[in-house]
Amino acid sequence: MDGKSMIDKLSHALAPARIAQDCEELTARLEQLAPEEGVHATAWPALSLFRANSTGVPTCAMYEPGLGLALQGAKQILLGQQAFLHEPKSYLVTAVDVPVSSQVVRASRDEPCLCLTFRLDVQRIRELLPEVNMPRTAVASASGLSISPLDGGLLDPLLRLARLLDAPRDLAVLGPLIERELLYRLLSGEQGPRLAQIATSGSQSHQISRAIEWLRRHYDEPLRIEELAARMNMSASSLHHHFRAITAMSPLQYQKQLRLHEARRLLLAGLCDVATAAHRVGYESPSQFSREYSRNFGAPPLRDVARLRMVDAEPVP
């Protein structure tokens, strides 16, 4: 065996040990940075942390484009009828805004569920694409959410960024460089081709991402599929097919999720009553709104909001 082959073999053997060591350090840092349950912002705006000390019930949320890493515990995420288990040794990529149901399924006080999320800037990804040697992986259609095995290329810049969170002056200079490296590693890995499809102008996946952006801005307006398809230079059937492939739901179902999530936000903030919230998000019938809200969130609006406020008010044990 020549010297190069021996070095390659040794590096391959050491990789799992190095990943385990880096994960251990990053887990310890997350426990310090997120001492209490919930979502925690950090000194780097794109990076947020999550902690749960116990398992929970399914909750509905809107996932933005981002990279998710589970360091301890596990979450189950439902996108339409697709189920994903987000646990250590894997990373999750959300390529577009998608409504999901998320549930912590493994956590305890001694070993809390610890996750980090790095928000992705699709424009920056688009700018970086010409410089990336993309893996030659055939992608039939880009899914809005997917999970891949974790590798050291992604873990290393995330750990270095976490180390800088308590050094503001260093973070201001080195943070942008580390973020660029992180995006490069992400595009060079298994999920690169999917992200490239979403970011590449003219691709069908990019057209769907534009449709999603339009729906997010106009969720309270009547939706006419033919008009939306024309805006995206697609046929109605093509829009339906590719929209469902990415989001696991139809445009109408997606719009309904947007409306219900926004209504829930308005009610939680105490900005209006149920009938007003229904009207603001585009429902003509408050009774229809209440029925669909109950089916989606598991309880009528007022009961659901009261339950959420009670959970938020409970002290952390």
UniProtKB/TrEMBL annotation:
Record has Transmembrane as a keyword: no
Record-annotated HTH araC/xylS-type domain positions: 209-307
PROSITE patterns, alphabetized: HTH_ARAC_FAMILY_1 (PS00041), HTH_ARAC_FAMILY_2 (PS01124)
Family annotation (Pfam families): AraC_N, HTH_18
Single GO term (MF): sequence-specific DNA binding
Gene3D superfamilies: Homeodomain-like
Origin: domain of life: Bacteria
UniProt entry tagged with the keyword Transcription: yes
Record keywords: DNA-binding, Transcription, Transcription regulation
Name of this chain's protein: AraC family transcriptional regulator
Protein species of origin: Dyella japonica A8
Phylogenetic classification of the source organism: Bacteria, Pseudomonadati, Pseudomonadota, Gammaproteobacteria, Lysobacterales
